[in-house]
Protein 1
Amino acid sequence: MMSQNAPAIGIHEMMRFAPPSDAAVPLHAVFAEDLAAWRATLPDTAQHWLTATGFAAQAGQVALVPGADGALAMAVVGMGGPQDRARLRFVLGGAVARLPALTFSLATDLPPDLREAEVLGWLLAAYRFTRFRPVTPQEIARLVAPEGIDAPRLEVMARAEALIRDLINTPASHLGPEELEGAALAVAEPFGAQLRVIRGEDLLTQNFPLIHAVGRAATRAPRLLDMTWGATGPQITLVGKGVCFDTGGLNLKPGASMGLMKKDMGGAAHVLGLAQMIMALNWPVRLRVLIPAVENAVAGNAMRPGDILIARNGLSVEVNNTDAEGRLVLADALSLADEAAPDLLVCMATLTGAARVALGGDLAPFFTDDVGLAAALMQAGGQMHDPVWQMPFHAPYEALIEPGIADLDNAPAGGMGGAITAALFLRRFVAQTPRFVHFDVYGWQASAAAARPKGGLGQGVRALLAAIPDVLDADKQG
């Protein structure tokens, strides 16, 4: 049953295209290098207005040009020059907040390599977290779908991003393991997907000891969510970290580090968003989504530093830091996924601060041994305005995750190479699956940017959406 406290994850009406309308205001997207030639095509009054308002087609600059009757005749958005476009993304989306809440139609034929990405940016810019402060769609500028784009696909991507952002933005008081289960059910039901849930002490009887160990101290029972969809085609399994709040356990986080821990279920949000896109686009695949949903809490029965746990696949793990709990719950889920040896296994998690030190919050690192998948992801990340970067499963660091009294150490001493050692730890639980990729995402926009308001953020999911079909097609051709 879906809890009454589960987040509202329905379609954001403002993140859809507006229906065609004769009343839509023309919107011109003007590149700085084309400004002079474009201005020359305008009536003298419009040229004078642009001169008087200082419009220079700078990236994100907006001009509202009135007609002879004083009503808005057209809007103009500056797209900047080539250097701007090399370092900025979603320039058009960044202008949405500066436009009046009217319906616009794009009067510029954008280059093919920018067209869908910039229009998607408009949809993403319309996102608002409305759970606790409602916003009506009428307060946001709308866009009629331009010709030559796959509008339904873009809306699917926008809805998935809204889902990811909503889930991450929802505080732990309203999103615990039970509510995350409800959110997964809400994603599954419209597509006829099946959701099986293993809760509480049943995790022990069904051999998920690490998930149970991490979540047992919380008042809200831990669980494993197992969603399946599709009967034929390649099998894709998505595993997402669902730590709904992370206190650090007995290795308690300081307050400053605990402030954003509502987002520690960001991996779960990401795989639910990706799954929703796959099902909405009706891919011919067998899809499975596994989410260990827990809280890492403090109580008398909490796991302790120095404890040794036996994972689902039989490996022993020394718990040298209870705040390195994400890799523990993922280990059991990855072991279950690996038992079926899917064609592709994707793991997504807000896992390490080390990944942020290495690449910052905007660039999502991924780890894979599959050369073709890595190349496809790097290419797709650029095309989809969803930047990702490959990091190595560096084999010499394997010794760092071997404590001596157990097979594995969940928190190697020294702290160096933390994102890599965490990825190597996870890979130990994937023995039979030939194609595995792990994403260590941040899932958060620290300050507002174009089409990315401050708060929860999807990373890597659009790159995966674009890359996976190419990789699976290559398998068929091979």
Protein 2
Amino acid sequence: MTNADPQELAKFSELAHKWWDPESEFRPLHQINPLRLDWIDQFAAIRGKQVVDVGCGGGILAESMARRGATVLGVDLADKPLKVAQLHAMEGGVANLDYRSVSAEDLAAEQAGGFDVVTCMEMLEHVPDPSSIVRACTAMAKPGGWVFFSTLNRNPKSYLFAIVGAEYILKLLPKGTHEFSRFIRPAELARWAREAGLDLQQFKGLEYNPLTRRYWLSGDTSVNYMIACRKPLVS
């Protein structure tokens, strides 16, 4: 069985036409993208690298990595966002970028050790078995390659900020975007990464000020956070 939730795929497909509107429901993704792109590039030096973006959606991160000089494959199982991503890249003349509808597990079986960099951002909390995605991303990475994840912590503060605040009060995201029970504690993600064979390099928090409407990276991983991992040169 495919490790995907049909309701989640449908949810993002319905909003696909808004993906590249920076004032739409995807505004937070547009705002945080420069931060996460620079953070990834700081570790992986992506120019000239083979990169796969797992759960790429409409391609905001994938296209920005291609524009920075990486050769990028974006993969997702939601067809409408993929078509939006393909059209946007074509209209923008981004040549070193391709998209495919394929699961992380199937791509890992097909192209094990095929990528210098693997990114999987804002996806793990939307799938039935996130640990399987972590294993697949690890398998896709070359020895010595980099693997990056981002997700949401599971605690009372994250419920208040990411669901009550972001979806109901500030309306930064559509209601129902996230399901609290699927949020992932950093210790859980770290365990899955280690069990998959990755070396943890850094946790980084992502914070938001609703008054200034500004995002920034910090050491606070209590709500949104990212993790940088490296696949050992020898297993």
Protein 3
Amino acid sequence: MCAIDALGIAAMLGRDTRIESVDVTTGQPIIITTTSGHTDWEPAAAVVFIGADAGVGPSADCCCGYLNFFIGQASAEAWTRNHPGIPGQILNQTQAEDLGTRLFRPLLAD
């Protein structure tokens, strides 16, 4: 599942969540837990890369493979250097959570 989709689930459902992922560069685990609206990231330096290839079509085809968690800025930067054809940006935790919330909270709102 896309990192931003995963982050948006807590806001969309108004429930506590636990996301378990791995850094695609290092293979190290990343765990994000949302409890009562507060989110904790492990490791504390984890970030999210958001990007898309030049393809046209559903976001699952052109984006989801490029919306990933990383253990930190250096790991995300290493991945971007190895994938120069994937434009995007690295988001800090607040930016990633805010994007997930903006995209997903309205989906089940009254």
Protein 4
Amino acid sequence: MTHPATTATTRPRKRIHLAAHFPGVNNTTVWSDPDSGSQIDFSSFRHLARTAERGRFDFLFLAEGLRLRERKGLIHDLDVVGRPESLTVLNALAAVTEHLGLAATVNATFNEPYELARRFASLDHLSGGRAAWNVVTTSDAFTGANFRRGGYLDRADRYHRAAEFVEVARALWNSWRPGGAPRTVRHTGPQFDITARPTLPHSPQLHPVLIQAGDSDEGREFAARTADVVFSRHGTLEPGRAFHTDVKRRLARYGRTPDELKIMPGVTFVLGDTDAEAQERATHIRRQQVSPQTAIAFLENVWGRDLSAYDPDGPVPDIDPVPDSDVVQGWAHAGDRFGVAARWRALAEEKKLSIRELAIEQTARQSFIGTPASVAAALDEYVQTDAADGFILVPHLTPGGLDEFVDRVVPLLQERGVFRTEYEGTTLRHHLQLPTPHPGREE
């Protein structure tokens, strides 16, 4: 989907922020492509990171999972957890990059503040101030069974724990007085009771950039209070503008300005020498991403039933979902199965969609499809009209899926004057045009 560039306004043109998402091994990655590589070999991570740095991107983003997904008691093989742990990978990448920010997804439900704050502080030091933490939470007992606390944490309590976790981590990161020793951090709350001194002084950016991805009202409030970057799901123009406006207006409640939070939706892209060629290529990629088996698995996630007898190219099942099911484990299925199934069935009937076509439509991210010039114009329009502050690009190939964008689109953004031609600072906060936290003061 592309859009023409808007007319110039009187305000200064905003800089576009770009990040690269290492492809997840799910319905994003195209395994069957001859250019698809390993999700485990370090060379894959190094290639994507160096490509992003060559393109002067702000950061590289790694997703994370804590348990292999299961379907009908069997391991579901298209899973992001089938690769090395994110912080380990990023510490290695710090040695083969110079400027690129390094963002890891780490769970606040099944970690402890002191230990995790120390690990991120270590990455921040080793990288020269380029670390970022994507704060995520988990409430399902299936994942919790891997840990001592099990799955006790109610879904409603996820953000309470995450907010307190971040509060403690920030207190630890901020406690080292400039030119002196660290002060003792004492915290007593519903989730944590600690007395500790950090073992590392401030990093060049004081502490890691915080990323958050929740979209509920409580998630948006958590982002406004806590995050530096929001990994948004709202990638199209009007929903993007509405989300951008809503989250930015919440910042004032916490004494923050709109520039202190960057909103970056996850998006895909497909390029061609003509718009028609790009659209044809995009259709082919989507059908590779959502195979017949993937389409059935996608519906089973909501229906909670074994749907393997249904034809992926046939109509959506007219049976109701099962309220409580263990057919699918480890997927963040929709809470209201009946409501979601009813909406999907109505949509399929209205548009005459098969199971596979419905799965393709429902799993699609915003995708910028067209020539390099039209994609550059569309990205620029989104940022200049406040639908986003930048984008986290999710390529469909590992590890070379970003190469074409860096070679063909980035130069056009640079010509427009909306993307850097060289790195101007050394820390991720500088890349993102974020303020540096005040040292020696708890936030």
